[in-house]
Amino acid sequence: MVRAFRRDNAWTLGLLAFLVVLLAFTKVVNPNYSLSSLSSTATSVLPLALAAVAQAIVVISGGIDLSISAQMALTSCVAATMMKDNPGEGTAVVIVIGVLLLGLLLGAVNGALVVLTRVPDIVVTLATSFVWAGAALLVRPAPGGSAAQWLKDLVVGPAGIDLLPKAAVVLLVIVAAVWLPLSRSHLGLSLYAIGSNQLAAFRSGVPVNRTKFLSYVITSLVAAFAGLSLTASTGIGSPVPEPTYVLISIGAVVLGGVSLAGGIGGVFGPLVAVVVLQLIRDDMTFMRVNPNYGLVAQGFILIGVLMAGSFIQMRRART
Amino acid sequence: MTSTTTDLLLEATDVSKAYGAVVALDHASLSVRPGEVHALMGANGAGKSTFVKILTGAVTPDTGRIVVRGRERSSHSPAEARRNGIVSVYQEPSVIPDLDIRDNLRLTQTPIEPFRRWLSELGLERLNLSTLARRLPLASLRIVDLARALAIEPDVLLLDEITAALPANLTERVLQVVQRQGTDRSVIFISHRLIEIAAVCNRATVLRNGQTVGVVDVSAGSQDRMVELMLGEVVAALGQRDESKATPAHRSGQTPRVEARQLSDGRRLQDATFELYPGEVLGVVALEGQGQDELFDILAGSERPASGSLLVDGKPVAFRHPSDAIRIGMVYVAADRAEALLMQRSVRENISLPFSARVTTWGWINRGQEGRKVDEAVKTLQIDARAGSEVRRLSGGNQQKVTIARWVARGVRTMLCFDPTRGIDIGTKNQIYVLLRDLAAEGAAILLYTSELKEIQLACDRVIVIFGGRVVAEMPAAGADEAALLRAAHNLKPDAELPEQVVAATPADIAAVEAAVQGASMPTSGQP
Q1: Domains and CATH numbers, chain B
Q2: Is the pTM for the entire model greater than 0.90?
Q3: Does B354 touch chain A (CB under 8 A)?
Q4: Within 13 A of B107's CA, how many CA atoms are on the CB side?
Q5: Which of B321, B329, B442, B446 suits a disulfide with B281, CB 3.0-4.6 Å?
Q6: Where are the domains of chain A?
């Protein structure tokens, strides 16, 4: 049992080990890094981590979503604008729910377009990313708006003890609420099935189109959570999507052990991968590396990881 | 051996190729003399297509030597094989559909003038080279492929089922051209039509189970020898039929589990009509590409029929999705496990996948109950599930057992098995056939297409033969020995001698004979 677990999750466990090493390294390059710094790392990484989880779900199903960062911008702007126009802690709850519903709607549009038009997902979601980004600018031409206090408090600071940042708790709760039921249900198995082998899934009676549609809807739901977390951590809504989010979400998915061909992986690997990528970026800042080199370095890290991953898979296939 | 090497245009020796545990070619050999037309024969799955792929560089063999004109050659791509003097016309057209013919020729650096000359020899002199390839009918594309291959003036020309998609008049032209090659060029000719082989080939190499089992001089009376070689001996290791479990083949008055009435997909399958009764294993025999793939796709709900009707338990059904068929217990077992299984997922997930389809899509998986069912199925089918975390690590036989187990675990009423034992070791084959018989004994109806004719008598109660998309023969399995089945599959009349008189005939006669043969057996197709 333990051995099987170790084998099935070897990649994630290795990544966790790497994260520990990286944390030690961070402490060396930045002696001021302490347990309380964990909270700020967690707060800054939260939107990206949710974006990676969102991306992981659709990639596992054999698709891809390039519109995640634009969806985050749109949902974030809608949330910030509505909370400014309708202040009140109670109304904010309604607004949060409304924004999550908006996320479902965005996903439904993406999914319906992919399934009905049979245009490749990469094209559809690239196109809709412009639609969502444009809509975000219509809602809020310049960064602004506000966020309810409880929402801001939710993601800043530690939860009781220093070792446990609030943002990490929020992240785990959201991921657990979406992923655990999914992975134990027939829908979850169907997601893996269409990502693994569409023909086999079809012949096994899996409703391929419906499942594909739902993969985009769930992805966008998580992306809406990511947008809300942006509003919560910054207190405003910014209409311009962060261009690196999509790339980093895909990078984290790959680094987290999800196959871009679909069918393999989970969401916890990408979560760890996001933290790894963020820490590398932070360390470079501490080491006063030119941030542009930082991007170059991240690119090379991704390529290196991909090569290592496919090398391991090739060796496995041979034995 | 070495002394004869120089006389041969092409000599392939000791050629082996294994795909994982499946041995496709096992030290096979092929020698082609200059100027001869040489047939490469074998039943489905004997290794013909692998041999062709190796000769043309599409597949790299594990072992073996290929010598062309006395020099050893190794080809790692079709382009390289072409430089080595070997050119192939594949079963599927190999032109780029969105380019016109002229650009297609440019792409392969084919000289235009010889191409035009061959085209007119083949009866297509009026073809406009500016036509987009996708606008041409399939038959014309085959001719274009052939003319293009001839224009390159290869040493060895490989023709894989070139006549399969051709109408009679073009077939005749093609056969004439094939026969008229000079002493400089040899042709390797693959066809399911024995009559064509008799008419144009000088010698024939017969493959069986990946091995070269004989080289025959094609002459009067040699067809029987070829058929014999293709069949081989009945494998003694295969379990004998338990006669006590045998069920009466045909019970009048009983409602058929499945009744196909003039099913057609509009292309390959034409008016297929047959009945499948509960408690029987009905064998289906056909050469490749006679519409059996389409028939099974329709029955399994993957495709919708263009015309005809399908009745299950006497009620008409119209499947719109495989889940519709699965819901009424009609399930499909594919030959290619990669089409049925999630290779990177576990045995458990693969077995429970069809369950998920039955219940609502987002219903909860009850792990305890599911686990028990999976364990039960694994035990029933004796699946060696030690490498259960990823199905792709199981052996081919165990993979196939998983595809069957997933259906058995949920209770099956009708099982559609499409060559379920392809590439599986003999012991597992035996287990699968015993399992199918047991399922039938419990009341399931089983439709079994197999490319291994010798297994029909062992596993089936009745057998139908499909040729040209129609059911052309039906017989009790007891009387269906391999010779009878092979004759029927070639659409020759059951008792007819293989037409020896055709050997010396001209292609025009052949077309006539073939038409006559097809016409003669039409009445058995069960048409109104």
Answers
A1: 2-231 (3.40.50.300), 254-329+413-491 (3.40.50.300), 340-411 (no CATH)
A2: no
A3: yes
A4: 12
A5: B446
A6: 37-241
